[in-house]
Amino acid sequence: MRPLAFLALLLPGCSPAQTWEKVLAPGVVYRNEVRFDPPLVIHAVRVRAGAEGVKLRPVLANDKVFDAVTEDGRAKLTEIARQTSAIAAVNGDFFPWTGDPLGLMVSDGEIFSRPYPGRSVLAWGGPAAQIARAVWSCSAALPRGEVALSGLNEQLGAEGAVLVTPAGGKLVAKVPSTVVVLSYEGSLAPTQKVEASVTTVLSGTSELPVRQGQLALGASGKAAESFAQLKRGDKVTIAMQTKGIDWDRQKFAIGGGPAIVTGGDPLIAWESEGLSSSFASDRHPRTAVGVTAQGDMWIVVVDGRQAQSRGATLFELSKIAAGLGCVEALNLDGGGSSELTIGQSVVNRPSDGAERPIANALVVTAPFASLDGAYVIAGREEVALGTGADYRVLDREVEIPGASVVWSAEGAAWVDQGGRLRPIQTGEAIVRAWIGGKVVEKRVRIVSRTPSKAKG
Fold first, then answer.
1. How far is CA 148 from CA 202, 237, 284, 401, in A?
2. Where is average pLDDT lowest: 72-81, 140-149, 266-275, 418-427?
3. Which tens digit of pLDDT belongs to each residue from 209-242?
4. Dist CA 331 CA 321 (whole Å)
5. What are 278-336's pLDDT values in tens digits?
6. HSE-up (13 A, CA, CB side) for residue 222
7. Which residues on neighbouring strands pair with residue 395, listed in sequence order?
8. Among 212, 329, 361, 363, which has the minimal tally of Cβ within 10 Å of its Cβ?
């Protein structure tokens, strides 16, 4: 890990701020900015375009929309980071209570979730990333007619028809429905026509696993009549189109909304994307993803609903993204979902006070030099409210350079990337340090009285 300078920003006419940048791997940099007036804590990870072995991609929690373990398929971000060996990860798209991503998700050219009508998506992987409002349509051509499909890897309602792929995990219906299982090998692209053979037709089904080598069609209401006429061996042609994005160039996409930077300019069309004025103008924890003119990708988390960080409006988030050099940027899910991990450590402070299970995430994978020292965190074991304490990492009594350490804390205190612990309330705080893939921690008591003696 190469050291990068700590930056203290105290410019005339600007609010005081402290900024740290730390190299996690060649081509991956973590940036932490702490502002004091108004209080705001910003976390961001930059992924350099063309960096060898470095990849930013969306992933489903547990690799499934719905799975047998969690029912709705959601998982904590730290679990997703562990499952994907991510060096950094951030929460992804909005999701309903059913746990499926609300908007478009495409990874390595495979579609997992359709776009939410009227909402922006960010697509990347080609020469230039693209903000768009993608339009999805899908139909199933049967021997006796054609049925329009209303959903992909999502819950089937009381009226309609959906397509479920192995990534969907299982077909889930609100009411007993007609389900057709098809034999098909391979993944589905955002725009593709495929032919599959009927293997099974079931009636009165509310839930059915969908395995590799299968597709499933579920229908309720009027659509169920057409599916019920199918028999084993019948051919069904699935025709899917996802317009608005050049899929010959773009291999990845994630939904969210609204777009907050387009063509280098702030463009916050919250109203046309079906979002409320309070959603746009109130300060909340926020998450965003963006791309620079050079093709570098930024993922950004702004803490909120806390004394040390009030959160950001959408306009303030757009200024943060533009300030990082983004020429295209998209707002993602926020509030209690806003979270950033380095390794498997949560470096921000989720506003719920704990991790919220999410439907999908953006993960950064990269090769890095693993370190394996005899690390310990040195510093006070007791810190009083209204004060602070500095911590450092030692390896056999030799101090590790601060630029090589990523700090995080949970519980009764928070920590900046200089290793300064700042109490929030009385109780216990757990201070963690990530050094080249290894994590060490220290428990610290936060008390209301002045500590009698420094320890550690």
1. 19, 12, 39, 60
2. 266-275
3. 999 999 999 999 999 999 999 999 999 999 999 9
4. 10
5. 999 999 999 999 999 999 999 999 999 999 999 999 999 999 999 999 999 999 999 99
6. 5
7. 375, 398
8. 212
Distance (Å) of CA 231 to CA 165, 180, 215: 20, 9, 15
> Does the model's pTM come out above 0.85?
yes
pLDDT at 450: 67
| Residues present in the chain in total | 456
Torsion angle (degrees, nearest 10) of CA 54, 56, 60, 63: -20
Q: Which CATH architecture has domain 135-243?
A: Sandwich (2.60)
Write the CB contacts of 312 (distance below 8 Å, at least 6 apart in sequence). Answer: 40, 283, 284, 286, 302, 304, 320
Percentages helix, strand, coil for the chain (3-state, rounded to 5) are 10, 50, 45
Q: Does the structure show a pLDDT above 90 at 6?
A: no
Place of tokens 């930024």: 298
Specify whether the CB–CB gap between 230 and 142 falls below 8 A. yes
What is the identity of the amino acid at 253?
A: A
CA angle 300, 331, 416 (to 5 degrees): 25
Kindly tell me the burial class for residue 92, based on how many C-beta atoms sit within 10 Å of its own C-beta (0-12, 13-18, 19 or more).
buried
Count other C-beta atoms under 10 Å from residue 254's C-beta. 26
What values do phi and psi take at 19, rounded to 5? Answer: -135, 135
Q: How far apart are CA 344 and CA 103, in angstroms?
A: 26
CA angle 21, 48, 242 (to 5 degrees): 125
In degrees, to the nearest 5, what angle opens at C-alpha 334 toward C-alphas 330 and 338? 105
CB atoms within 10 A of CB 269: 16
Would you say residue 365 has pLDDT above 80?
yes
Per DSSP, the three-state class of 30 is: strand
Question: Before 166, cis peptide (omega within 30)?
Answer: no
Query: What is the DSSP secondary-structure string of 288-327?
Result: EEEEETTS-EEEEEE--SBTTB--B-HHHHHHHHHHTTEE
Question: Which one of 2.60.40.1080, 3.30.70.1170, 3.90.1300.10, 2.60.40.2310 gives the CATH number of domain 375-447?
Answer: 2.60.40.1080
Residue with tokens 């700042």, as numbered in its chain? 422
Q: Strands 382-384 and 438-447, how do they pair? A: parallel
**Domain residue ranges in the chain:** 46-130+253-365, 135-243, 375-447
**By the 8 A CB rule, do 202 and 179 touch?**
yes
Termini Cα distance of the chain: 26
